[in-house]
Amino acid sequence: MTGSNATNSGEAINHDTAMRIVTVYACIRVLSQAVASLPLSIYEKTKNGSREADSHPLQYLLSTEPNVEMDRHAFWSAIVTGLLITGNAYVRIVRNAAGQVSELFPLMPTITEPYRLPNGTLAYRTQQGQSNGTWKTLDADSVCHFRLLSMDGIKGLSPIQQAREALGLSRAAEKAGAKLFGNGARPGGLLMAPTGLNPEQKESAKKSWEMNHGGSNQGGTAVLSGDWKYQPLALSPEDSQFIQTRAMQRTEICALYGVPPNMAGDTTRLSNNNHEQSSLDFITNTLRPLLSILEGELNRKLVPQIGRKAGAYFIAFDITERLRGDFATQMQGFALGKQNGWYSSNDIRRKLGENTIDDPSADVYTTAVNMANSDQLIAQAKTENIDEQPLNPPNQDDNEPQTNY
Description:
Distance between the termini: 101 Å
Number of strands: 13
Radius of gyration: 34 Å
Helix content: 40-55%
Pfam family, one: Phage_portal
Number of domains: 3
Largest sheet: 3 strands, antiparallel
Strand order of the largest sheet: 4-3-13
Order of helices and strands: EEHHEEHHEEEEEEHHEHEHHEHHH
InterPro entries: Phage/GTA_portal, Portal_HK97
Shape: flat
Protein name: HK97 family phage portal protein
């Protein structure tokens, strides 16, 4: 790992120490698992849109097992974790004798870096094994390089290093709080005696109270005899400020990673109304941009950009499940889609993970009559031989008596 970086708080922040901050760990866990849980496939472009290319050699690597050592979830969890810590993530592309991609292996971002060859060509070097291993050079075509914000477009900036002062303050406050409660730096209350005590009696009473109600025994029931009284102390202004500092640091770290505070465990301002909105904001402003980084590099390095197959395929994550919402919202959306001809019954069943129906009508796309244009209605009327009804009623029989109204 990279060396420690001192901060004004006195805390050294590097990749290891930052991950010991609960909010940092929570944000990285939320993002890495969100990406790893999304289906990833290669699609073939068609005249009607696109479809999954199930027979493509890349499909199994992307959707199931990138290499013999890990499944898709473990692979993408590692990639996104490294990306969010160091600002860079690297994947080694292994090809077979025919030049087809056969495996994808993550490279440790702390011992991998881009550099320029003497002729100006971009390449990568990585250490084999541990950090003291020998360096190996890889062609740029053999490495997928995912990067966050970058000054030169080549190497991403580490969020940990860019925000080390804020993280140092958070870690210092966390350690101060642990010491405060561990050592009892702030008395929880005052123990008042009925009459004046000599120094020996005071010390004896203090030790007895700490032994029975201090440390791990805090919060127990106290039984006082005679005229002894216990008066609890309220939070001091300093303690209140400390709590506010801790809350502010959580908010800043969540902002660093674009994770709503409620997803990182802060539910102080959570309500039913803003929960769904924060989830949508997370998808739109955080998850989508992150997926765009990953998809862009995968398509650039794994999908043919020249030749006969150029532009015929593309790789993409499927975020449909993240957009579904609750069950009632799903059903309302599906009903609207079926009513307006976006979905057939079988389309909806596929999205719900149900088996399709072996009935031709289940694949029919219907449209409400009031959504059809006039030409369609006229053509349908002619086809079905629908005659216009007469505007005037038939003449009454002359023999029947007429009634005047």
